[in-house]
Amino acid sequence: MARNSFLRKIRKKAKAVSATAAVLALALSGCSVSTSSTAAVTGKAGTSIEGAVELFDANAAHNVSIVWDEDDYDTMIAAYETDSDKAWISADITIDGTLIKNVGVRLKGNSTLRSLGGAQSGGGGMGQGGAADGTMPTDLPTDMAGGMGGRGGTPPEGAGGTMPTDMPTDMAKGGVGGAPGGMGDSSNISADDPASLPLLIRFDKYVDGTEYEGLTQLALRPGTPVINEALALSVTAATGQSTQRYAYTTYSVNGSATQTRLLLENPDEAYGESIDDGNSVVFKADADSSFSYQGDDLSVYEDQFKQLNKTDTQDATPIVAFLKWLDGADDATFDAELANWVDVDSFAKYVATQNLLANSDDMAGPGQNYYLSYDLSTKKISVISWDLNLALSGNATASPDESLSMGGGGMGGKGGGLGGNSLKTRFLASDTFKLLYDSAYQELYTQVFAEGTAQSLLASITESIPASDDLTKEEIAEKSKTLGTFLTQRGEALEKALAN
């Protein structure tokens, strides 16, 4: 898909004209520019920079602005349009008044970026963006219905693989894989609106040792205000599970109108060391990874499971050993020995949480959104959630025994696209682990819905979301109300299901 170069040129000229007009206006009025609101403290490159305001303080107002060279930006977009390459460019970023120069910036996402073109665009797909018109694709494999079913992979009676009909009417736009309607459209991005794009910001890309408040990376999430993602992150944390920190901010690029965006901690080495008090090795699953045994050569797994920490002393051997065992284990062996490899209590809680949050793109989804944590003391593996932008959207009435993964089981081959994860599928199909799962689910339901944690967190999050040029307080309130309706429906559906 070729970029609209004509629109790009107009955009550049418009900015130049606006800048010239501003200078002339100041000259004619005899005014001088006040530096009190625009001057920034420059952080020293190669050091750990402390911000004027704690970045993840929800009670503080945050502002982020990025400045980059327009030609560099065009090169970055062209690289993605040509072969889906996410090329890095240099930029200067100001966070809450602190300027950090020469940071690395690149596009971030997979299906989210499909509207930009690229070698793998292929239309809307079933990823975060969904179909262009928000509808379900019609060319799915005919046997995919199993992935939308219950514990054994079959759809619950009356489901038929169809979308629920009792969702809030303004959520229908998103559908499965679409934007959480009423909460922020993550597919509404354009190369002609640079501020709309999801980005990965890396402070030490060009200058080694540069950190901001101990972070080397930040993810600028797509869409606005994506309250569902923020709430899912908060619920995960409130239930005692590892997750990622976030903050809402007003955001602009090269002096553009401001947008309201979600900034998310992008797991790095320090994040890995924060898990289990530094006693675990953490791996990020790539979107094209395969949760399967592919031989003993560790190099085969390097790009599929990126190791975040302890790279000098540890490697992926425990992960490969587990995959080898999983590949050869029959059902009886799986039931008898899984607890030797996996923290089954933690895993039951993870799987139950994804269903509770109605997340259709977890470790078994097409995005393969998860981290693996290997505890060096217990020698067991746990799963950490990631990329929750499809949580708390979609099917509000799904039962605890119903699979919400978009890809179905057993389809997690390399580049498989539709997802699937054999560990999750077999765990949910096992009668041995049913009591563990049911117990974890009941406990989560009680805390999150029956005790009102979700609604309370929603109120707090809504208060923290700043208005911007592109988002009014009234719009924020309306989107929060939509999500509140979803929570009510979800809670009522689960109360009924768990009572049976």
UniProtKB/TrEMBL annotation:
Protein name per Swiss-Prot or TrEMBL: Spore coat protein CotH
Keywords attached to this entry: Capsid protein, Signal, Virion
Source domain of life: Bacteria
Lineage: Bacteria, Bacillati, Actinomycetota, Actinomycetes, Micrococcales
Pfam family, one: CotH
PROSITE patterns noted in UniProt: PROKAR_LIPOPROTEIN
Keyword match DNA damage: no
Segments of skewed composition (Gly residues): 119-132, 146-161, 174-184
Region (Disordered): 116-188
InterPro entries registered for this protein in UniProt: Spore_coat_CotH_CotH2/3/7
Signal peptide as annotated in the record: 1-39
